[in-house]
Amino acid sequence: MERQAAAMLAQQYASIKRDLDDKGIVFSFSGYLSEGILYSLGEALREKLALEAADGPTIRRVFSVFVEQMQNIIRYSAEKMSGTAGRAVELSAGMVTIGMERGKVFIVCGNTVRNSEVPRLKERLDHLKSLDRDGIKSYYREQLREEPDDGSRGATLGLIEIARRASDPIDYDFNAMDADRSFFCLKVSV
Questions:
Q1: What does pTM read for this prediction?
Q2: pLDDT tens digits, one per residue of 3-17
Q3: Alpha carbons 102 and 187: distance in angstroms, whole number
Q4: Full DSSP string of 3-47
């Protein structure tokens, strides 16, 4: 019986791996994140891109988008765990997936957000999607002069920075989980 369960375990995870490969995904992480994990994953991503002979500007754009998206998860995920382990610790749950599609690198990040935050986030993202390259540059300069929104922790500038680095318009979606929370996904192609 144990041997059969082990075989099923391998089948299940081989199936997940095949599904990721079929979708062009080269890098995937799901779980609790911290700044330290962000740094480690970022280094692995940078090395993977270098091994694939990506050019310097592409590596920098992908890395920049990756860091911005991961910081958004760390700062804004509604699914957090905190406590002390000799020091104060706060971890935020989310996922990041990186792959290749139509000759471009894509980065998809996802995390739980409070439903009360969805309308404002949707408004910001829709505005960014409506702008062309020059519009995004102008909006970025305009936002640099503005005072940040209460509680934003730089979210507006981070989203603009992501849109500036993207080669295609950003894509996003929300999936309601319950009365209080939704799962938010943001996809960026570079």
A1: 0.84
A2: 666 668 999 999 999
A3: 14
A4: HHHHHHHHHHHHHHHHHHHHTTEEEEEEEEE-HHHHHHHHHHHHH
